[in-house]
Structure formats: structure tokens, C-alpha cells
Amino acid sequence: MIFTQGFIVVEDKNLKIAILSGKGGTGKTLVAVNLASVSDRSMYVDCDVEEPNGHLFFKPQNIEKELVHVKIPVIDKDLCSGCRKCVDFCKFNALAFIEDKPYIFENICHSCGGCTLVCPEKAIKEKDVSIGEVRRGISENVSVHSGIMNTGIASGVPIIKRLLEKKNVDKGIPVFIDCPPGNSCIVMESIQDADYCILVAEPTIFGAHNLALVYDLVKLFKKPHGVVLNKNLKGDNPIEKFCLEKNIPILIDIPFDQELGELNSNAKIAVRENSKYKKMFAALLERLMKEVQT
Ligand code: SF4
Ligand code: SF4
């Protein structure tokens, strides 16, 4: 491990670390923004597209915006013969037959393109609809990328795909992916290319239940993983028991700490505010590197 002016130089320049938790508010963004900030150079990607908040911490400069579009079908009713093949095909129930003609519910269409392909009359074309945007900027040593989904959109997957598209991922620096909470398809999309997954958990029975959700997911994807135990108090807790049973390493135990909580709730990056937190997250990054190499 190499240190330059208190920052850690991550030797594996193409490393991608995903940070997950079974529910929001567990400390996922706290871990992601501080790990990205303690690395001498890094990329932070906010894939929590329904409620991105990493940019509130980083306050990035020189922001560039890019709209994200999806294809939504449009039916030419004059060409439609009323065969219903499109309605039968749509597994998302985004098509219904009303007064002998198919009708599209755009808000629940997943843009799979299937109805266009199955229509024998070629009555279905596609139009571009904006579903959100990607913002890219710089905050000191961190390249900050955030996805923001418009209200009422069925799925943020296309925005996450755009964020993590190879050509949009910075080369030669480690990437920290702040995943959406839970274990749904947008989380699966976020961890696809990750080399290692950090599971953030709180030391309660509810926290253990949420940890089990993301643990099952990373096992399914065969991703190496470890746990960050956040807001820990002294004494036995269900997370340690769970990790012991499943043989999961606990990478760091972050104690319940009022100062850290206040910094975090004021959208301040702890490692930039206080050297003790810089040491703490540097130790986490160091441990992480060892885990990745084993
Ligand atoms: S594009 Fe796919 S999800 Fe959308 S209406 Fe057609 S079949 Fe359904
Ligand atoms: S598949 Fe084509 S022709 Fe058949 S109902 Fe749908 S739009 Fe009409």
C-alpha cells in the first residue's frame, strides 16, 4: 500500500468496488464517498438513481449533463389488424386491448422492444422518451458521476447502464459504485462488473435481515464480498453472528459516533474534515485491497 500526502494509492488501477445495503439509510453512501475521497484519485458513481445524494457530499464542479432516452412503442392504429400478439407478448402488462385496439401504458413499458418485433403488420414503431440524466463533474481528487431518474419512470436500469458503460468509466483509477438499496434488478445491474462488493449493515435484527438479502444477491453473482458494520455498539450483535455463520469477513467496525453522524447528516465528507476519519477509511481501503488480492 502506497501513501501520498495521507491518501492511498490503489495499485490495481482497474478495480471496481460496489457498495450495497439491504435498505436505505444504513451508511452505504457514507462508506462510498469516504472511500473514494481517501483514494489519491478515484471515480465515484452514484447508481442510486431514484434518490441520488452523493453529489450533495461532493458538490462537484464543471458539471456536464447528458440526457438518457429509451425507446417506447407507438402503434399505428390504421395498420393494426387487432391480432393481439403484442398484448400477449408483453410480460410487463404495458399493453392492453381496449375497444379492439392495443393501448400502451408508457409509464410501465420496459422498452424491451419485443412488441415491435412480434407485430405481423409492422404497425409498431418506436419513439425516444427521456427518462432522466447523467451528471459528471469533479470534486478535488474524485470524478463524480450521478444518475438521476425522472419521476414516474418504471426502471432506472438504462441510466445505470449508461453510467457504467465501458466508454464512460474512467480508466486507470479505482471506481466506487454507490448502489441503490435492496436487491432488485437495478442493484443487479450496478454490481455486474464489480470486482468486490462491500455490504454495509447495522447491528440490529432488522439489519441482519437486510444483510441477508444482499448477501444472497452477491452469492448468486459469485462476487467476493465483505461486511462493513456501521453504527456499532459494544456487545454481541446479530451481524457478527451472521458473518461468523456464513464466514464473511468484517472489514471494519464503525462505532456509533455522534461527530461522524453530524458530519454525515450535514453532507460533509468525514475524511476531508477530520484526520481520525481519514485514518479510519484509509484502514478500510487497506483491508479491502488485501481482501481483493486473496
Ligand atoms: S416494449 Fe416491451 S415492455 Fe414495452 S410495451 Fe412493448 S413488449 Fe411491453
Ligand atoms: S401485434 Fe400489431 S397488428 Fe397485432 S394487435 Fe398488436 S399492433 Fe395490432
Describe the structure.
By secondary structure, the chain is of the alpha/beta class. It has two domains: 2-41 and 173-293, P-loop containing nucleotide triphosphate hydrolases (Rossmann fold, 3-Layer(aba) Sandwich), CATH 3.40.50.300; 69-129, Alpha-Beta Plaits (2-Layer Sandwich), CATH 3.30.70. 33% of the residues lie in helices and 30% in strands. The protein is built from eleven helices and 13 strands. α5 (157-164) runs parallel beside α6 (185-191). The longest helix has 19 residues, at 275-293. The model has no long low-confidence stretch (mean pLDDT 93). It binds iron/sulfur cluster (2 copies). One iron/sulfur cluster is lined by residues 75, 80-86, 102, 119, 121, 123-124.
Explain briefly what this protein structure is.
The chain has 294 residues and is an alpha/beta fold. It has helices at 28-38, 54-58, 85-89, 114-118, 157-164, 185-191, 205-220, 238-246, 258-265, 270-273, 275-293; strands spanning 2-4, 7-9, 16-20, 42-46, 61-75, 95-98, 101-104, 124-139, 142-149, 175-178, 196-201, 225-232, 250-255.
Record keyword descriptors for this entry.
294 residues; alpha/beta; Rossmann fold; Alpha-Beta Plaits; 2 domains; 9-stranded mixed β-sheet; two-stranded antiparallel ribbon; 13 strands; binds iron/sulfur cluster
Tell me the layout of helices and strands.
Elements: E1 2-4, E2 7-9, E3 16-20, H1 28-38, E4 42-46, H2 54-58, E5 61-75, H3 85-89, E6 95-98, E7 101-104, H4 114-118, E8 124-139, E9 142-149, H5 157-164, E10 175-178, H6 185-191, E11 196-201, H7 205-220, E12 225-232, H8 238-246, E13 250-255, H9 258-265, H10 270-273, H11 275-293
Helix pairs in contact: 1-11, 5-6
Bound molecules: iron/sulfur cluster (2 copies).
The site of one iron/sulfur cluster (SF4) has 13 residues, from helix 3.
